[in-house]
Specification:
This protein has 173 residues and is α+β, with helices and mostly antiparallel strands. It contains 5 helices and 6 strands, in the order ββαβαααβββα.
């Protein structure tokens, strides 16, 4: 495969899907070698045997597990349905915010590149009276000083020591 992929240091929210076309064992080191990179963060790389996904399937895993927009998955449905065996999903974060160039070669075959749906962090302003910035009510009273508490703890400790000593005095003839 002669596809070259340039990953920028600022790339974020991109997932690449590759088919693994080998009957032999394929591990993290073999993946790095097949992509032509020195290392990948394994927390952001998913190697999946498709039959292990059961009813969820790869489409469900992409949508629910990876946050891929369903319309993107729908556009790639024939290619996704045709996959057998093992696949690998690589998130942008796997490259550690470093610019790299991928040179995928056998047994990897690039299938698709997807964009993760960003989290919606917008909110509507609250319109209640308490959200307007005025706080009313009684100011909380000052907390009692720790000096009184410390005094009572020391007094209790002294009483325990005095009782213990008096018990030993009575026992000893």
């Amino acid at each position: 495969m002669s596809t070259q992929m340039r990953i920028t240091a600022t790339e974020h929210g991109v997932v690449r899907l590759f088919a693994i076309e080998t009957a032999q064992a394929f591990d993290h080191d073999a993946l790095c070698a097949a992509l032509g990179v020195e290392n990948l963060d394994p927390k952001h790389v998913d190697m999946i045997t498709l039959k292990d996904l059961d009813e969820l399937g790869l489409e469900g895993y992409l949508a629910l597990g990876m946050g891929i927009e369903p319309s993107e998955i729908e556009a790639m449905r024939p290619q996704i349905k045709a996959l057998k065996g093992d696949v690998v999903l690589i998130r942008s974060a796997a490259f550690g915010a470093q610019a790299v160039t991928l040179n995928p070669k056998a047994p990897l075959r690039w299938i698709a590149t997807f964009g993760e749906v960003p989290l919606d962090t917008t909110s509507t302003p609250m319109k209640t009276a308490s959200a307007q910035g005025t706080v009313s009510g009684v100011t909380p009273s000052d907390r009692p000083s720790n000096t009184k508490v410390l005094f009572w703890i020391l007094a209790a400790f002294a009483l325990i020591v005095a009782i213990t000593i008096s018990m030993f005095i009575r026992i000893t003839p």
